[in-house]
Amino acid sequence: MFLRGNLLAVITGAVDDRSARGIAAAVGRLISAGELPAGARLPTVRDVARQLGVSPTTVSEAWRSLTRAGAIQTRGRSGSFVTTPVVPRQSWRYSQMGTPHAARVLDLSTGVPDHDLLPDLTDALKRTGDGRLTSSYLDEPVLPMLETVLRNRWPYPPDGLTVVDGALDALDRVIDVVVRFGDHVIVENPAFPPLLDLLQTVGATVIGVPMDEHGMLPDRLHGALSVHPAVAVFLQPRAHNPTGVSIPPARAAALATVLADFPEAVVVEDDHAGDIATAPPVSLGRHLPERTVHVASFSKSHGPDLRLAAIGGPGSIVSAVADRRLLGPGWSSRLLQGVLVDLLTDPAAVAQVAAARHAYASRRSALLARLHERGVTATAADGINLWMAVDDQQIAMVSLAAHGIAVAPGGPFCVTPIGADHVRVTAGLVSDGFDDLADALASAAILDSRGSGARARPHPRGWR
């Protein structure tokens, strides 16, 4: 049992950054490492502040951050105690992405693919047979024929490979292996809200790095890693959600060069768009294979209900994910894995996915061109989403809701403010009526001096 004086020395000795965030991160790391065990009573705010030479307000803010993350619990006059991190659902960014308006005519907030552009599963299900693909609960988690197909498609030779239940399941399981409470983690800014939620649940300190039209900025990544040594860097190599940016090979090489100086950071890539992305496959694993985890999802390209994504990368990480799953679901449906093998190898299914890729590109281009004609700043280089700058997020969403149009607010995507309000529009669901939709979006995006919509004023602000 710790004495309070010992706890004070342990805490203050671990703090090298005396900001509120730095104190919270240091205490979080101590909790994660077991040096502050569950049930331990923390020193008072005033004692910690006095020992660190900071104001009690700074320590109180750190304690509030730890409380929000569920790492500690305050019991009134009894003091603050170490507990198990628990994050209430209502605080999740993911829950803020939907819109509550019931009278939707066109819901462009979802980020899901167009069902009519997905490959037909009928023949694949027939060819898969009667589903006798499991002979033992200890069979390998990946069908051998699927593993062969996946390895042939992988952007670099992975040491290990397994299959899980979709991209978010993959990210969740990789985070569980590589990230601990208080660890610094770097992401793109903006980033996918569920990823930020997953990192919040483990109490990570998230650092957002700005992007340009080619992805994360290498110099800003270097600066972030120099100040905040990180255990992981999360990237979306293609069709970045929400901006649509894809990383070209030259930028991937530049980012890998930066990361070569920081060998403790694992690279985690979420290739969520898969085969509907226009850009060719790209991965930092071509430069850093020993520390790059690549996630390949098939939800947007072949069907969300397949619930399949592959994880490939260092054997130590992939094996840890597969071994932990043995104590839960064990494996992803081998019947669905068989269907995926068929879809990835059948010429008709391959042609259907290629047609979907071209259709999404055409839809993005058509809507983006019309918005630019109306003076709206937006990006939609790849994938199914469009990232549109607006003068006021809330006013824009209310204005669009009045037209029966739902979009996702930009706020939950932003780690820190990026200079302008935005909304995300699932352009991939729009197959016609581009001019009318562009009129409504432009009117909502740009406000005149009286605060009402105006269609044709140039809007110079970007998302970087």
UniProtKB/TrEMBL annotation:
One of its GO terms (molecular function) is transaminase activity. CDD domains: AAT_like (cd00609), WHTH_GntR (cd07377). Residues 17-85 form the HTH gntR-type domain. Pfam families: Aminotran_1_2 (PF00155), GntR (PF00392). Gene3D superfamilies: Type I PLP-dependent aspartate aminotransferase-like (Major domain) (3.40.640.10), Winged helix-like DNA-binding domain superfamily/Winged helix DNA-binding domain (1.10.10.10). It comes from the Bacteria. Keywords: Aminotransferase, DNA-binding, Pyridoxal phosphate, Transcription, Transcription regulation, Transferase. PANTHER family: HTH-TYPE TRANSCRIPTIONAL REGULATORY PROTEIN GABR. In the C-terminal section; belongs to the class-I pyridoxal-phosphate-dependent aminotransferase family. This is PLP-dependent aminotransferase family protein. It comes from Paractinoplanes globisporus.
